[in-house]
Write a structure and sequence with these properties.
The structure is a single chain. The protein is an alpha/beta fold and 327 residues long. The protein folds into 3 domains: 47 residues, no CATH class; 209 residues, P-loop containing nucleotide triphosphate hydrolases (Rossmann fold), CATH 3.40.50.300; 57 residues, no CATH class. The chain contains 13 helices and 7 strands. It has a 7-stranded parallel β-sheet, with helices on both faces. Helix 2 packs antiparallel against helix 6. It is globular and about 65 Å long. The protein starts with 8 loop residues before the first helix and ends with a helix. The relative contact order is 0.11. About 3% of the residues have low confidence.
Length: 327
């Protein structure tokens, strides 16, 4: 990871253009950040998001209608004259590593709207439902002037908990007739949801599912200023989505007033700091191993089974730490 502050003139110009609301510049900078390399770190060091954008995560199992909900919510946000950013996490192509589904396919209704920026992102091996670089992409969108940022997870089920570290409001979408009330408990979604949505509510069992989720919430949710609502929607027919949008905005306003938004953002920044430091330390250690024959020998002994990975790591850490100490 680079320690300097240098940026190419071209990238610096892209940042200036993005800050002026240039959508093409934003798209190019997102591509740079997705590479997760030295240039991407320098880009993220240069931007300073306002913190005023409302970040909303939409998660839940495959087939819950998350994309349709995001599409409808975008329409309501645009009616409020909010500038919208959309991040859609997609499965990775086994051949290219890129996103399988394109943003033009996902959100055709809003693709030509200059007030909406849509980006499909590949998971690239991430197991948490969101790409590892999603934090940087959200920062870019906010720095570019977006007021309302929707983050749709890929829909991988029980592992989709990373969204908590990325957004202010978590919407969990479920569908009836699929045992999703039980799945919600297994996945830990009861703990991360700020709002529950039973989508495709025209299906049989929707009403009983709403009742079941409310009953479970009464058992597991701690007392707080926010009581998690459970809403029934038919996103395909745009039924109930307006109420969902109002609840999302109400959650944002309440959290901003009682200080819980600031607490959540602070926790997210601490987690992000830990992640960045881990990357920096690992890269620095691997660079040292590649250039120091002594350290390489310990790796060789580990490969031969003479040292355990734990013993090799402890020895390498001890040597590098001593080298970094002042004389």
């Amino acid at each position: 990871m680079a320690n300097g502050n240098s940026l190419s003139r071209q990238t610096a110009a892209l940042i200036d253009d993005m800050l002026q609301g240039n959508g093409r510049a934003l798209a190019k900078l997102i591509t740079i950040v997705e590479e997760d390399n030295e240039e991407s770190y320098q880009v993220l060091r240069r931007i300073n998001p306002s913190g005023k954008a409302h970040r909303v995560g939409v998660t839940g199992p495959p087939g819950a209608g998350k994309s349709t909900l995001v599409n409808r919510l975008t329409s309501f946000a645009r009616q409020d004259e909010l500038r919208v950013g959309i991040v859609c996490a997609d499965p990775s192509s086994p051949f290219s590593g890129g996103a399988v589904l394109g943003d033009r396919v996902r959100m055709q209704q809003h693709y030509m709207d200059e007030g909406v920026h849509i980006r499909s992102m590949s998971l690239r091996g991430s197991l948490g439902g969101l790409p590892a670089t999603v934090h940087g992409v959200i920062k870019l969108m906010e720095a570019s002037g977006k007021d309302f940022i929707l983050v749709e997870t890929v829909g991988v089920g029980q592992m989709e908990l990373d969204v908590m570290d990325s957004v202010d409001t978590v919407v969990v979408a479920l569908v009836p007739e699929a045992g999703d009330d039980v799945q919600a408990m297994k996945a830990g979604l009861m703990e991360i949801a700020d709002i529950f949505v039973v989508n495709k509510a025209d299906r049989q069992g929707a009403d009983s599912m709403v009742v079941a989720i409310k009953s479970m919430l009464n058992l597991v949710m701690p007392q707080s200023n926010w009581k998690v609502p459970v809403l029934a929607t038919q996103a395909e027919n745009n039924i109930g989505v307006g109420e969902l949008y109002q609840e999302i905005r109400r959650h944002w306003n309440l959290c901003a007033e009682d200080g819980s938004l600031a607490e959540r953002r602070a926790k997210q920044r601490r987690n992000e700091l830990t992640t960045v430091l881990q990357k920096m330390v690992v890269q620095e250690f691997m660079r040292a191993v590649a250039t120091d024959p002594r350290l390489a020998e310990y790796i060789s002994q580990m490969n031969d089974g003479k040292l355990s990975p734990y013993a090799a790591a402890e020895t390498i850490y001890s040597i590098i730490a001593q080298q970094g100490e002042p004389e």
